[in-house]
Amino acid sequence: MSPDGLTLRVDITENVPGALDGASPTLHYDDGGGLVSVPLTPLGGLSYQATFPPAPCNTVFTYYITADSTGGIPVSSPVDAPAQVFTLTVVPNETVIQTSDFETPAGWSVNLDGGDTASTGQWTRGDPIGTAAQPENDHTPAPGTQCWFTGQGSPGGGLGENDIDGGFTTLTSATYDVSSLSDPHVDFWLWYSNAQGASPNEDVFQVDISDDGGATWTPALTVGPAGVGTAGGWLPYRLRVLDFVAATSQVRLRFTASDLGAGSIVEAAIDDVEIVDVACTTPTPCSGDVDGDGDVDLTDLAILLSDFDCTSGCVADVDGDGDVDLTDLAVLLSNFDATCG
Length: 341
Description:
The protein is mostly beta strands. It has 2 helices and 19 strands. It has helices at residues 298-306, 326-334, and strands spanning 6-11, 26-30, 35-39, 41-44, 47-52, 60-68, 74-77, 86-89, 93-100, 109-110, 123-126, 147-150, 167-172, 184-197, 205-210, 218-223, 231-240, 252-259, 264-279. The strands form 4 sheets. Strands 9, 11, 12, 14, 17 and 19 form a 6-stranded antiparallel beta sheet that branches. Strands 2, 3, 6, 7 and 8 form a 5-stranded antiparallel beta sheet that branches. The protein has a 5-stranded antiparallel beta sheet with strand order 10-13-18-15-16, with no helix packed on it.
């Protein structure tokens, strides 16, 4: 679940129509601070909503749900709760900041520093013509057709017609400003094949990252010479920027494919690059948000009124003094219609 909290729809099935006590469905959860019980919010019919409050990343919630029949018979999910419970773990929010699907060049450059040595198979952007080593299609779903790849052969041409030969070819990204992001990551899809030809699995694919616009480079990923990711097929990769360089306004990526060995067929392609911010921020709670759904509204007021005069284990103890009284009501009403965050 997100650090912002979670709402979960709960549908109840009656064995006998009218058997459910409609006011009884309750969520019981423990986030490490003790068991809390909160009435489910009716959605109409036999549908309800369970609400988990905001919590820090890596918090583990254990929870179960109970309800009673009109005859006072309790039921639960899981059926043997609380001996058995469900679990939820709070994980970071991910926000896609920028996407490049390469239907346009997107500011990327081939042989940026002029030092490439490959005689054929240089990086190019377009709709690739497939071979046993090169993709027939880009990775982006239709109507996307374009990606960066190493050398375009002719329709029906041979396997090695325009693969990488004689050295290396580099593809350098645009400059990304990630200085304001909490924890920037780079996601991309890579096609890499070095498993064809007379001397397979002799070369590697290298990814480097820079935080100074390309003045200096830090190795971030090597694929090959053998193993996963060396026989073609689109595969996803993720790089955490802070594992390698600082999160600056001058971050760039460089992709290097090479044929430095003898007699091998080497092809590569890149598509669907994303800059993603992975953040674990917990919204600031507001007093009166009893159900933890991020605002103070009539649902919170109804829960407080149903809990009024409680003196132990109170769900709606807004001021934290161990009971629910007029002070709690006053705090809730003073924040009515507030949005937490």
